[in-house]
Amino acid sequence: MKPTIHITKRPKRTDTAGNRAIGGFRKKSIQLKTARGRKNSSQRWLQRQLNDPYVQEAQSLGYRSRAAFKLIEINERFDLIKPNSIIVDLGAAPGGWSQIAAQMIAEKKGRGAVFALDLLEMDALNGVTFVQGDFLEPEIKQKLRDLLPGPVDFVMSDMAAYTMGHAGTDHLRTTLLGEMAFSFALETLKPGGAFVAKVFAGGTHKELLDLLKKHFKIVKHFKPPASRKESPETYVVCLNFKP
Length: 243
Prior knowledge:
It is a single chain. The chain is α/β, with parallel strands linked by helices. Helices cover 35% and strands 21% of the residues. It has helices at residues 40-50, 53-61, 68-78, 96-107, 138-147, 167-188, 206-215, and strands at residues 21-22, 25-26, 86-90, 113-118, 128-132, 152-157, 189-199, 216-222, 234-241. The protein has a seven-stranded mixed sheet with strand order 5-4-3-6-7-9-8, sandwiched between helices. It has a two-stranded antiparallel sheet with strand order 1-2. Strand 3, helix 4 and strand 4 form a beta-alpha-beta unit. Helix 3 packs across helix 4.
C-alpha cells in the first residue's frame, strides 16, 4: 500500500541570512564533487536541482515533481479543487499535478476524480485515470472524452512544447498547446467551471485572450512562487465558465 501523502504549504525560499531553507531549517549549498564528462549546461542544471528547496521538499514529501507546489499555490490563490471535482490534467507526466489534485479530493473525502493525459508514460496514481497518447491526435482526445463521467469542473494544462532555443518559436508552440487545451475545455467544462494553462513570457495571444474573456467571467495571469524567477512560464487562470 502506498503511503498517504498530505498536502503541505510551499517551502520557504531563503532564511534571514540568505541561505536556502525549507520549513525554517537552513539548507547548506551542495556542490558537485566532479564535473567530469558533463557539459556546462548539464552541470548548471544539476547544481540548481541539488540546491532547489522545492526539489528537496518534493522528494521528502514523495511528490512526483516540484511542479506539485505550483498547483498547490494556484489552488491556494483561486480555490479550484473541490471535494467532488471532476478534473482533467493535460500534459500530466510525471504526475505532480494529478497527484496533488487526487490527494486533495481524497483528504476532503470527496467523490471527485482526476483524468490525466500525456504523451509520456506515467506511473499509476490512486484516484487518477491515465491515457497515454498525443493530445494533438483527435482519436486520443476522443479516448479521453469517452472516459469522462460527464461535464468537467476543472481543466488544467501544464503542457509545454519541447524548446528549440528560440524564444519566439518556443512561445508560439506553447501558445498553440494552450489554444488546443482551451478548445478541449470548451467542449467538456460545465457552467461555472475553471481552466488553467501554462503560457510563456509575453502572456497569452490577444485572439486567445479575447476568447477566454468571452467564455469566462474572470481571466487572470498568475506566476506561482514555485515557478523559478528566471523561467518565462506563467499561467492563465480562467474562472466561472460561460458556455
